[in-house]
Fold this protein.
Amino acid sequence: MVVLGHESTIPVTMDDIIHHTKMVARGNKNSLIVADLPFMTYQVDPSEALRNAARLLQEGGAHTVKLEGGENIAPTVRRIVQCDIPVMGHVGVTPQSVNAFGGYRVRGRTAQQASQIVKDALALEEAGAYAVVLELVPAPLSRLISEKLTVPTIGIGAGPDCDGQVQVLHDMLGLFTDFVPRHAKQYANLGQTIRDAFCQYAQEVKDGSFPTTRESFTMDEAILAELEDL
């Protein structure tokens, strides 16, 4: 979504995910690679979901896949896990459901929402998910879910009591300075650094101070003289 400049994850395709996963896999040494199954690549049919999950491993080089949803996609998770493809779950605010939710807003503050998120997380664990992402969920609810599950929880905007945390690197590095989500912490301001670098480069090209002899290459003067006579 962020890398491709989309407003949401809805337009992302299997080919997009495979392309990006390949790049990660080529540079990876010993980290677990989790690839998201895009919108409508796993919701229609468990067999189709299995085929797409297999593509992410075979073609993309992922080690595991991630699916959004809870009780509604538990049978699909079970089908994929039965074929020895590890699955990470994702509940709370699920970005592929942004249109149904009406935006990226915290979920789980009402009794109905909180109860459903707990049921969703438990259903994913029962279906064989090895971990569950909790996104934009109140911290007390995340703590309760983390205590109920035997598999790790990974939080994003879900408080300090999850077993692990994940953030969007663009937020962490300050690549977009106009908007920082409340749940994110900016550890650098690389956006301004990058802008300053490009502005300096452009100015030096305009005023002729770049490139210099240091950034240029020489050749034999005799050969150059011969070329001038052509």
Notes: The first strand starts at residue 34 and ends at 36. DSSP finds nine helices and six strands in the chain. Strands lie at 34-36, 64-66, 87-92, 131-135, 153-156, 164-165.
